[in-house]
Design goal:
Layout (H helix, E strand, L loop, with lengths): L13 E6 H13 L5 E7 L2 H5 L5 E4 L2 H4 L8 H10 L1 H4 L1
Parallel strand pairs: 1-2, 2-3
Length: about 90
Amino acid sequence: MTAKPEILEMRPKITVVGVGGAGGNAVNNMIAEGLQGVEFVVANTDAQALSMSKSSRLIQLGAHVTEGLGAGSLPQVGSAAAEESIDEIM
């Protein structure tokens, strides 16, 4: 009699990344609603906004470029902040 092969249950790995103030708010809402089976990451240049996050994984973008403040809706500042933090992002 042949033994049944072990069947491994495969589960998808889902990561939600909230970027900026709106992304952080979206993640906070998902956590508050009790969304399960998802890893949450929040990334922001604004240190104060990050401190309000309910996510356990936080990435402060461009701490030196922005000095912990927001990017001021300036794409070039946001880009420079992301480049500064590329190792943390990856």
